[in-house]
Specification:
Elements (H helix, E strand, L loop, with lengths): L2 H5 L3 E8 L6 H9 L17 E7 L2 E7 L9 H16 L2 E7 L6 H12 L4 E6 L13 H6 L2 E3 L8 H11 L17 H16 L9 E8 L5 E10 L2 H8 L4 H18 L2 E10 L7 H6 L4
Parallel strand pairs: 1-3, 1-4, 4-5, 5-6, 8-9
Antiparallel strand pairs: 2-3, 7-8
Helix pairs in contact: 7-9
The structure holds guanosine-5'-triphosphate and magnesium ion.
Length: 297
């Protein structure tokens, strides 16, 4: 513990990780927690719902809210995702606004900056993927620099995390810890397992298809100590998609299963038997209640 941490009053509160799709929100959450909690892929719009990750330090407890990337399309799922961004802005004590070092300040950054300002929330700006860019990207609104600390960070290389967290902690209210010390997230292992299946879908399937698929764990049996049995449905909207996900001779779904099982075993620290079933559910993407029951809002 540093001198500063020993003397400072304890602080606790929520910081929302906000930014455009693919800016590195989930990677930053995982790097801060030192655990893979949120799935990460090279494609934008991977995260579908808010996840709480709890970072404990001697002087503070930071409740980090990972959010879906804010984007412009009006589809039902997308507006549900943007809804969870809005509620994260409302619920947080401080905003951690992310800007990609290579892409610079985006229209989504403007909208989030304005929303945080309107809600009266203090902001720290993080320039992500600092290992890829050189310094601060151009076309940077001067007002932002005057009103918020701007700090570079590389989540992949673990650089800049502590100064960033120090800046966030300064914005949190004085408070005793809000969660027990061993608590890492508000999400169940069952839900995290479904997410890891979804991550494997993004790795194994081309282009738009992963966005059309939902994963629902229908059975999560931990009664055997040496082997956790998990059954999950992959919900697609059309028969043609089902054929692609299964692949010739079942080869695609087999690869998805192997990749997902490996990650789930690392999460659960146990052997896992993973059974995947592809189901056609034409309306899941259009039905707000269904999107909610799948845990995406
Ligand atoms: N080089 C480099 N790449 C990074 C860094 N952080 C994230 N990435 C990459 O950026 C891509 C997107 O990362 P995510 O963490 O999924 O981004 P996100 O903001 O959560 O994306 P959505 O959930 O889709 O909105 C992945 O390919 C990451 O590996 C970083 O610090 N350096
Ligand atoms: Mg994400």
């Amino acid at each position: 513990m540093t001198e500063r941490q020993r003397e400072a009053p304890h602080r606790a509160g929520a910081a929302a990780l906000l930014g455009p799709p693919n800016v590195g929100k989930s990677t930053l959450l995982n790097a801060i927690l030192g655990t893979k909690l949120a799935i990460v892929t090279a494609k934008p719009q991977t995260t579908r719902s808010r996840i709480l990750g709890i970072h404990h330090r001697p002087d503070a407890q930071i409740l980090l809210l990972d959010t879906p990337g804010l984007h412009e399309s009006g589809k039902v799922l997308n507006s549900a995702l943007n809804g969870s961004v809005v509620s994260a802005v409302e619920d947080c004590d401080a905003g951690l606004l992310l800007v990609d070092a290579r892409r610079g300040w985006q229209p989504a950054n403007d909208r989030l900056w304005e929303a945080l300002g309107a809600a009266g929330k203090p902001v720290v700006v993080a320039i992500t993927k600092a290992d890829l860019g050189d310094g601060c990207p151009a076309d940077w609104p001067e007002a932002v620099r005057q009103l918020a600390p701007v700090l570079p960070v590389s989540a992949l290389q673990g650089e800049g995390l502590e100064p960033l967290l120090d800046a966030v902690v300064e914005l949190l209210p004085e408070s005793p810890p809000l969660y027990p010390e061993d608590e890492l997230t508000d999400r169940s292992l069952r839900w995290l397992a479904a997410e890891l299946v979804r991550e494997a879908l993004f790795m194994e399937l081309e282009q738009e298809l992963p966005y059309q698929i939902a994963v629902e764990v229908t059975e999560f049996d931990e009664s055997r100590r040496d082997l956790v049995h998990i059954r999950a449905s992959l919900l697609v909207t059309r028969n043609s998609q089902k054929r692609i996900v299964i692949g010739r001779g079942g080869e695609v779904i087999k690869r998805i299963g192997i990749a997902a099982r490996r990650e789930i075993e690392a999460l659960l620290e146990s052997k896992v038997h993973l059974e995947l079933w592809v189901k056609v559910e034409p309306r899941w993407l259009k039905n707000p209640e269904r999107i909610q029951s799948l845990g995406y809002v």
